[in-house]
Amino acid sequence: MSLRTLDEVLCDPVRLAAVAATGLVDDEPDASLERLCQLAQRLIGAQVAMVSLIEVSTQFLCAFAAADPNDAGIVVPRETPLSRSISQYALESDGPLAIPDVRVDDRVVGTGGVADLGFVAYLGIPLIDAGGNVLGSFCVIDRVSRQWTTGEVSLMVDLAAAVMAELALRTVLRRGDLDRSLMRDLIDALPTFVGVLDPSGRVTYVNGAALDAASVTLEDVIGLPFWETTWWSSREASRAAVRRAVEQCAQGLTCRSDVEFRAADGPSITVDLRLAPILNASGRVVAMVSSALDITERMRTHRELIRLADVETSARLRSDRMFQLARALTGAADVGSILQRTSRIGGELVGAAFANIGIADIPAGEIELWHSAGIEADISGRWPRVPLDSTTPIGKAMLTGELIEVATPEVMLEQFAGGADDATRAGFVALVAYPIQHGRTAMGFAWTTPVTFDAEMRNTLATVVELVGLGLQRAETSERDRSVAEQLQRSMLPTRLPEVPGASLGALYEAGTRGMQVGGDWYDVCVATDGRVLLGLGDVVGHGLQAASAMGQMRTAFAALAPTLPLEDLVERLSGFSADVRGALLSTMAVVDFSADLATMHVISAGHVPPMVRRADGVVEQLPDGGLPLGLEGPERRHVVRVDLEPGDTVVLYSDGLVERRVESIDVGLARLRSALQSADTWNGQAIVDHVFNSLGRPNADDVAVLVLHREGANRGTLDADDVGSPRRSTVIS
Amino acid sequence: MSDEAPILQIELRPTGLRLVGDIDAAGVDLLVSHLDPLPESGVEIVIDLSEVAFIDSSGFRALIEAHQRAERAGRLVVMADPSPAVRRLLDISGLVPYLHVRTIDT
C-alpha cells in the first residue's frame, strides 16, 4: 500500500465519522473497554493493553490497563501524533500485527513511540467496523522481546471483537450510528417518518418513508432547517409549531405536537410530531430525532365522537365511555391488552359479557382467537384457533366482510352448530361478529342477557369495533418498532453455530412480546483448542438496550475466555466480569463443558434454570438447581455437576422465559419442558429446539433462548437390553 | 393508563415491610423507593414475602441490593416466610445461602 493510499484511508470522511460517532475521542476513559484491556493484559501476561482510535493525524487512547501502576504515566498525554504510533500500521493491515521486537522490525523501526517508552514487543489487532473502516487498534505491549503465540493472537482477535462490539454499541446508544449502514438500514426499515437533526435543527438524515411521503430526495432537504422543509410548507402555523418544537428540543426537552403535514399529493394530513434530543455523557444535545405518526384517522374518530356527543345526553354518556376507550386503546401495545381494555370499557357500553378478537393465519388456513375474561377457562381453552371458514360467526364476518348477528341460541344451533354447545355452557343468549379488516381481523361480542340489536346498538358496536381496528393498526406499528430493537440483539448472537463432529446442534432466540422490551438472553458455542466443546446460555437482568448491551458483552467475554480456561475459572472470571459491566450484575448463566469425545460433560449453573439431559431412550433428567447468580460471592465454591453421556443423548440449555409463568409454580413449567423433551420424535438438534419451542412457546411473553447439543450415533431401532435401565446418574463432584 | 389493580402493594410494618402481589419490572421501582434508604426499623429489617405470588430477576436484584446495603451498614435484611412459589424461585436462583431466608414454622 502506497503512502498516498494510507493518507486517503486516514482522511476518509466515512471512517472519520465512524470514529467520531463512538463518542470516545476526548471523552473520559471508558469503563467497559478498560475491563477488556484488563482481561487482555492479565490473560496474555503483557505489561500494558490498550484501545486507541485513529483520527487524521493523531492517535487517541480510549482505555488501557497496566500490570505496573507506574506505567499509568504512558497514557499522558492521551493524544499522540500518529507518526510516532505503531497503530498507524493497523490501518494498512486487515489482520493482527505481531512484532516480537520493534527495535529490529523493518516494518516499524524508527517509529519511536512505544520503543521510546521502553516497550519492545507489540501485538495489535485492527478494530474494523461492519462497514470495513479501521477505527483504531487494540494492542498489548511488553518490555521484553517475545514471540507471540498463535493462541495469544487468537485470544486478542476474540477480545478485539468484544471491543468492536462495545464500540458499535456505544455508537448506537450514545449518538445513533446515523451515517453508518446498520442504523440507516434500521431507520429506513421503519414505516413511519423518522428524521435526524443536528443541534441547530438542520436536517442531517431522513428515512425513506419521509422522503416518499413528499416525493423528495435526501438532497432536497439535507442541511435545511427542519421547519423550512417541504413537509410543513402548507401552513404558516405548522412551520411555526415545528420551529417551536425544534427550539425546545434543542434545550434538551422531548416535545410533541399535532401539526398539519403536506403529503406529495392528496389532502394534507394531521401528524403527531415527536422530537427527542440525543444527549452525550455530559448532557449536551448532540442530535435530535423527529418522528411523525399519521393521526388523521384518530382525529376524525374523535371529531365523530364529539359530534355524537352533541346529539343527546345518552349519546354523550356513551361517547364519554367511547373517549375512555379511545384513550385506553392508545396505550395498548398488543392484542391482549387491546382486548382487555375493550372488553372492560366497550363491554360496559354495549352490555356484553364477553369479547374476542380473531386474526387470520392465512398460511395455516386458521383464525387465531384472543378471548377476554368473563368465560370459563376450559371453554375458551377449547377455542384457541378455528378454521378460516364460515362455520363460526367470527370466521363468517371476516370472510364476508359483513356484520353477523346471532340473536338467539336457536339461530346459533341452526347456523353455527359446532360452537353451539359451548356457547350454551358459557350462558350466551346472543352473539355478534364484526369484520374489522376484511379477510384479516374480526371481533365478536356475546351477551348473557337478552339484547335488542337496534340502530343505536349497532352504531355503538360499529364505533367500538372501529376504535379496536385503529388500536390493532397501532399495535402492528409498535410491533415493527420493537423488531428494530430485536434486530440489534440478534446481531449480537452467533449467526451460525460451529460444526462439532459427532454432534447435532440447535439454537433459537425469540424476543419477548411486551412493547419495546427486548431482553438480555444470550448463548454461544465454542470449540476449545483441545477439542472440548463449551455451551453457554445466560440471561441478563432487565430489558431494553442496556440489557442488550450487557448481554453482548457477556457473550463476547464468554467466547473470548471459554476456549482457554478450565470450566471453574471460566465461570469465576465471567462472574467478576459481570460485576463490572453495567447492567450485567446478578445475571444468570449455565455453562456445559463437553469432553472432546462428548462422553462426559461438566456443568456449572449460576442461578440459572436447571439444564436437562434427554437420554436416548426418552428418559429426561433435570440437573440440580442452584449456584449463585454471577457477580455474587458465596461461602463456598460453585458446584460442578458431572454427567456421562451415551450416543443419542441430548443436552438442553434454555432461559427462564421458556418455563416461567407467573400464575403457577415454576415446577409446572419444568414438568412441561420435560414432557416436551420426552415426546421429541427427532434426532436433529435444531428440530429438537423447534419442537420444544412449539410445545411451550412463550408462556410469559418474555424472551426465550434455547440451545441444544445432541450426541449422534444412537441406533434408532430397538435398544439393546443392556442399554435399557442401566443406572446413569449425575453426580455433584465439588 | 394504569386503571388495572396495582401489581405490588407495600405495607409498612414496625419491623420492616410486608409485600403483597407480584414483584416484577412494573413494581420494582416502588419497592426500591422503600428500600433505599433502608427502613428505620432497628438492626433487623424483616421483609415479609408470604403474600408474594411471583418475583422476577429485577425483584431479586432489588432484594439483593438491599441485603448488600444492610451488610455495609452493619444491619441485617431477613426475607421472611416466602410463599412456596417464591421459595422455589429462590432455590433455583441459588440465593438461599446468600440471603437470610427465615421460614416461620406453623
Kindly describe this structure.
The complex is a heterodimer of chains A (734) and B (106). In chain A, helix 4 runs antiparallel to helix 17 (545-561). Mean pLDDT of chain A is 79; it is low at 175-180 and 716-729. Chain A is of the alpha+beta class and 734 residues long. The two termini of chain A are 56 Å apart. Chain A has 20 helices and 28 strands. Chain B is globular. Chain A binds chain B through residues 327-328, 330-332, 539, 541-543, 585-588, 605-610, 625-629, 632, 634-636, 656, 660, 662-667, and chain B through 1, 3, 22, 24-25, 53-54, 56-58, 60-61, 64, 84-85, 88-89, 91-95, 97-98.
Span from first to last CA of chain A? 56 Å
Strand content of chain B: 25-35%
Rough outline of chain B: globular
Backbone CA Rg of chain A? 31 Å
- The helix tally of chain A amounts to 20
Q: Give the biggest sheet of chain A.
A: 6 strands, antiparallel
* Oligomeric state, counting identical vs distinct chains: heterodimer
For the biggest β-sheet of chain B, the strand order reads: 1-2-3-4-5
Report strand order across the widest sheet of chain A.
3-2-1-6-5-4
Fraction of residues in helix of chain B: 25-40%
Give the total of beta strands of chain A: 28
Average pLDDT taken over every residue of chain B: 84
Q: What is the radius of gyration of chain B?
A: 13 Å
| Low-pLDDT segments of chain B | 1-6
Contiguous low-pLDDT stretches of chain A (5 residues minimum) are: 175-180, 716-729
Q: How many separate helices of chain B?
A: 3
pLDDT averaged over residues of chain A: 79
Biggest protein-protein interface?
A-B, 36 and 24 residues
In terms of structural class, how would the helical and strand content of chain A be classed? alpha+beta
